[in-house]
Amino acid sequence: MSMADYYGDGKAQIDGALVIGKSNNIDPEGDLLNNVSPRGVEMPQREYFTVKNVRFYNFNWNSAAALGTCSHCVQPEDLGARTSTISNLWYDPETVTKKIMWNFPGRAILYDLDGTTTGKGEKSWATPYFKHNE
Predict the structure, then answer these.
(1) How sure is the predictor about 16, in pLDDT bands with cuts at 50, 70 and 90?
(2) Does the structure show a pLDDT above 90 at 35?
(3) Prior bond to 128 cis, omega within 30?
């Protein structure tokens, strides 16, 4: 995904999905997935993307994560962060060991409407760590 902002806020979204990172039927020997670290949902390069009412399972190997940030944001001229809105996300506590993978160069903002990802309550924010954010 790239241009989620084309029609405005709340138009580009994933709502009510089940996202499974690894399952027994994809790779019976377990060799194909052992060297990769997928993301369940990759946030787009632009503003106004929403992910809500999604359940995540089986992201518990290598650096696999339920969410990845800012697809295609590595161009030198692209200096800003992008905000995606998230709410009512559920992560299986036994099989999801990493909720967010901050893709290089770490330009992303997740606005958590209900706190289900940040654990910081309603209308909280998740960003990659940079000293100046303190």
Answers:
(1) very high
(2) no
(3) no
Residue 54's pLDDT is 98
Query: How far, in Å, CA of 24 to CA of 8, rounded?
Result: 39
Query: What gap in Å lies between CA 21 and CA 38, rounded to an integer?
Result: 7
Number of helices (H), then strands (E), belonging to the chain: the values are 0, 9
pTM here is 0.88
Q: Which domain holds residue 54?
A: 12-20+37-127
Is 6 within a domain? Answer: no
Domains of the chain: total: 1
Q: How many residues does the chain have?
A: 134
Q: Are 56 and 90 in contact (CB under 8 A)?
A: yes
